[in-house]
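Hi there. Long-time user, first ticket. I'm pasting a complex I've been working with (about 550 residues overall). I'd like to know whether the download I got is complete or cut off, because the file seemed smaller than I expected. Thanks.
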Amino acid sequence: MGKLECKEITKVYQDHRKALDNVSFSVETKGIFGLIGRNGAGKTTLIRILSTELEPTSGTASIDGLDVLSQADMLREKIAIVPQEARAIRWMTPKQTVMSYLLWRGYHYKQANQLALESLKKLKIDQYANILNTRLSGGTKRKVLIATVTASEADIIFLDEPTTGLDPISRRELWDILRELGKDRFIFLTTHYLEEAEQLADHIGILQEGKLVSIGTLSELRGSSRYQYSIKLPPKAQVPLLKDSEVTTSKSGHTQIMTNEAEAFRLARLFSEQGVKFSITPVTLDDIFFHIVGQKVREENEA
Amino acid sequence: MKRSKLSQILAGVLVNAIYEMKNYPIVLISTIISPLSLLLVITFVSSGALFGTAIEGGLIMIFFSSGIALQSDLSHLKNDFKLQDMIVSSPTSSRLYMGGMALAEIVYSVPALVILIVLAGIYLHPSLLQIAILSIVLLLMFAVSVAIGFMLSTFSSDVVQSYAFSRLLSLLFATLPPVYYPITYVPSPFNYLAYLSPTTYAAEIMHSATGYLNISTNMLILDWVVLLVVCAVILFIAIRKTRWREV
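Hi, the file is complete. Here it is re-exported in full:
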């Protein structure tokens, strides 16, 4: 099984903005890798470097043993990308969009025509094959773009925020498609929807201000997190004395206690005995993300 | 997988010309308007005397403007649709991408070209040698403008400015210089300014080849030298400065 490896990747743009700062990690090129982070965290810069669009200022990266700088031509034979803000060209139809991309990849006309129709059918948008892209819904337009790269032979696919701006139903439809794709290709996905990464990704990386602050499977991220459980209490509930926990109260008055396993079960027993309504769940990716990002902000403020 | 270079060029022609012409036939009319309207104006104003040079001017304008239009079209596809990002990360080389897109600009101008070529055939009756000279000059003009257009498109990040810049370049190099009429019609000192544009040299060669302008052999040689040098220098700069992968 191949690997995607980044070694000390740093990117400083010409306006002196540092987008990536010494990013190093390694993941197997199978399944779905989700890269999450806030806007401006450096997700797009990293995906553009890995997909050979952009040169890093320093550091190296390789995919399945092929260096993104010195072996870019060989690497481009096996990768494909749908960039952030990519749009289906408005004067073309979905079939023409997919076909032209396949022609650019060097397929013969007949083969491109056949693969385009198959890809549109697979994504259940073949009924729109000959309608102008401009007349399609946002979700269908996005599926057209996904169809272009999946129709190709590329076995490593980069998707930069593929569901941004879609309604919840279209987003879930795309998730099903991506899950299927991830079975036989490697999908490198960036998103700022934490639920999306939680639902789809086998491995998750968290970027914060150009630095990779955490990486692993969801259970590994939970394990590495200081807190493993989240307890939620209704407004006005009394919070007892806590050990090794973090308490936050929302505007609506709901209280969230993030804590470790032992303390979580002690609190659960206590609340049950007191008849306090509460819910207890393992921490979600949201909890981990907000905890990591929040901690970083606090550390910076203290510094 | 064995990849077809022909398919890679065809993709550019389809996306940048054929699909738009097929799905929006109205664009066929708009491609004709610019070169033919100037042809008509010059012909009417000169009472038909400059019809021949105006046909040649129309051809120069089409070939030069087509290459320059590449700048705004590529910029549009790159910045509004992120097409170039998708292509950079694919097995297509920058040369095949540019080749297909450039060819598309000529295909886009086919309706106007057909009209001008038919008019040239009827009115100019060019010999094989004259056809060869006109073709070489037009191809050189096209190469220069394609190189400028592609180079500028790779730097462009704003499609509005790109379209404005394209129109400005076309005006400066294909409309204002004496391409629709002989340079002898331009009074001094403006005729010296005209020599700042490579299209002036192209027009001099074409007008001279078809007998509309009498210039010395030395001047003709100078025209060819300037045209070839400009073409070589601009192609060299374009190859060196064009950004395919961003830094």
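A couple of notes from our side: Chain A has a mean pLDDT of 91. Residues 285-302 of chain A form the longest helix (18 residues).
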